[in-house]
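Researcher: Go.
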Amino acid sequence: MKRNPRTKGGFRREGRCLSWTAFRTGLITPDYNQFPKFPYSAKNWWVSLRTPNDDEGWRGGLSVSGKRGRTVVHPNKEIMIHAQSEVVAQKAANSIFNALLLVQNWGGLIGAEPVVTVVHRTSKPSAASELTIGPPAGTFSAMGLPLACLVAARASYRLRFAYALAQLRLSYEMSSVAAVALDPHHSPNIPKSPYLEDHVRLGYAIVLAYAAIEQMGLEVRASERTPSRLGGEWNPVVLQDLKTRLSKCKVDVDETFLWMVRGSQTAIEKDRPPKRLRKARWARYNVRDAEMSVVDAIAHVSWLRDKVAVHGVSPRRIRALSVYDVENARSLARHLLLQAMGLWKRLR
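Model: Structure:
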């Protein structure tokens, strides 16, 4: 199957348009005007927007300031998936949902996963116009859905990225904290849990985050013969290999990464303190956030995975894990994945 950019949806076979089925998702987007125009093409599927009928309860829209101070209302629209089968459409919806968690950097929507509903078949890729059945079982509106569609569409062409999305989604299921709870200007430090099950859950959320980094091929590659460190510093051979792979993935190796460090010093910090470049502007008292290089951040998450979460769990270390360690690891994987896809700047 070859991709043809002149064909809407991007696919042709033997000179003929493929037969598509339109599927409703129940995913409602109010901010589509802030992103490239639909439709978005993916491998074996594509997405379009649908305007609601008058009798649907999710009408309304997003009000924005237009020219000359006028208020412009962009009506809510539903994400439509076009594919050749329900399985392909559902896989696309799952990937879009996984990407939405990544865009929002929060697992608050887990439990509201979309279930696609068939609408009609068409020989040409076009938006659904005549609905033959009712709406999906559930609907929800979320900011950033168009970006999630772009992420999922790009991941569809590189299976390792799609698997990285799935691994990060499971990491969000293990542990997730809303951004406002992580902001030291709005919320107090989150204490460590006294419960063993929580310690294991945090550990495996880090394991899954690092698995996503490995899936992208951006892990630290070292061995007994070629250790990652020599005398406490980077082994130049290992460091250069990592920087080369990062550059090939279009990751800026000179960009710094924010590492959250909260509360008093822990057993983990005593054994392996984060290699800080400089303190964050807001760092004071028990908020000790700092900037790290991307390569040092990857190395630190690798150490947390190997020496804290798995490979013979150390009770002394794993009980010192906090939600901040998880968010650091997952935010790093998120940063790398979105940069590799060329979509990181769209979050800024």
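Model: Residues 219 and 298 are 7 Å apart (CA to CA).
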